[in-house]
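Worked example 2:
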Amino acid sequence: MAGNISNTAAPITSSLSKLQSLNGTFAIYKKQGPTSADVLNKLKEVLLKEAGVKNPNPRKRKKQSLKMGHGGTLDSAASGVLVVGVGNGTKMLSTMLAGSKKYIAVGQLGKATDTLDATGSVILEKDFGHITRLDIEEKLKAFTGDIMQVPPLYSALKKDGQRLSVLLMKGHKVEAKPARPVTVYNLTLQEFKPPLFTLDIECGGGFYVRSLVDDLGKALSSCAHVKELTRTKQGQFTLEEHALHEEQWTLEHILRSLQPCSQSEQGGHCAEPLEVDT
């Protein structure tokens, strides 16, 4: 009997050890609906179960059996590339955030919401019949390059240790954060079918697509909100080539796509993963 137990436990221990020895970054696909934190916890749970851990608790922070974090929060309503750091790879996430990101955003003219996207309540409606494709293309020029941008109230930014979005949902009064410098490397209008318009965006860290669309609506003497948002690229990871879908959340697939830590990143303690909303 003891021999049988030993033989069963050996591959489980081996799988868990292999999982815990991973150091690097990879990308997964985040679908619309769950938060980025929910998706990360689901990933950890799936991997720990595959390694033979019974009843894994991915939210337990103390004595974690698998150290993992994500770089760059995607709104719950957004989908696309979510970069994950595992082991010492978690301290590579802040570097990842400094790189460029690409998005495809579908905006809707004529309606503004409190969250600046389709999940919120409509707070303003204005006419958009006067707006042409040329109008949008002309206004987009002012949002390209190094610009100042006010972050949305509903965001992952924090006040007194709590996210602004959480404080708002609890009924607290929240003041807008001051405008801050952000960079837009490329911004083009892909499609215009009123009231909808599609933007192709390449930007740096700390940039909010929801703020862009809201500001653009105002600049066009109307209003607008984000109807759909997809992150197509973050750093070296693209949606088509690198993002692992849920059925690919296995140790085998991660080993194939893992970008390992450099030698200098292997030593020392991992930094806490940095989260920036977009």
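The two ends are 55 Å apart (CA to CA). Residues 1-10, 265-278 have pLDDT under 50 and may be disordered.
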